[in-house]
Amino acid sequence: MTDAHAGLVDQAVPEDPTATLIDLLSLADFDGARTDEDIFLGPSQKQPRHRVFGGQVLAQSLIAGMRTVDEDRVVHSMHGYFLRPGDANQPITFGVQRLRDGRSFSARRVHAYQNGQPILSMIASFQTDAEGVEHQSAMPEGIPDPESLPSTADLLRKYDHPLARHMSFERPFDVRHVDSALYVEPPKENVARNAVWMKTLGPMPDDPDFHRAALAYASDYTILEPILRGNGLSWMTPGMSVASLDHAMWWHRPVRVDEWLLYVQESPSAQGARGLSTGKIFNRDGVHVATVAQEGMLRLPE
Predict the structure, then answer these.
(1) Domain enclosing residue 77, as ranges
(2) What is the set of active-site residues?
(3) pLDDT digits (tens, 9 = 90+) for 33-69
(4) How far is it, in rounded angstroms, from Cα 213 to Cα 247?
(5) Of 91, 166, 204, 270, which has the fewest Cβ atoms less than 10 A away?
(6) What's the total number of domains in the chain?
(7) What is the CATH number of the domain that holds 192?
């Protein structure tokens, strides 16, 4: 999105962008068809760069795994590896292997396939409700309210570019940066921290699993930005190549993604063309609902 692309975008916001997310999470199950896996099929969201958004395949893989466990078993953790870039113009097949069903926990391995090859390999764990010890991290103080911050559309509407239009009008989440966004300009300070408010643009169904999966979807948007901030980079740094390598997530408490959530992130290390970021997600009442970790590849031109 260079100055050559600048120009007012007169683009109407879709009536309900959240409907796209709901469609993505509504997998077909082939009437219970199985090999050694339970098989599901999901659509891909169109992308300007024609690659599947990592958060999409994470969320869909979780939904596939959720479909194979008892309703009283709730996902509490997932660990996934992005193996190949996905084609956003093709659907994705999900194969779920039932690794174990114990007294309190169930484990599932989910592979996401395109053209007969896995693009994501993930293991998720599910647990029945239980009582036990409890504490949580404190939500940072002094964070401005989301209503006082510009939306992505506010920041990018002046750029007449397919990626700017997609991020402004086609993503199902409203993402608002606490510090200056990195879409075009580098950060004002090289500090390896980042924070955003986020929520879906429209209401979501009351199904708690949809909210948990949708949170995984949104967790991939900005998790690598602390690495960029720590090194004075923006997403438009010429010649830079960025890709997610793996993604881990833990759900701690109930969550609704159609209400504002604060996503606080930091990067403890970057080296060897890789960077690690971690994030904590809080609801507006300060309840710590989830934790995220991701390692990404980041290469700069010689």
Answers:
(1) 13-129+147-299
(2) 220, 244, 294
(3) 566 789 999 999 887 788 999 999 999 999 999 999 9
(4) 14
(5) 91
(6) 1
(7) 2.40.160.210
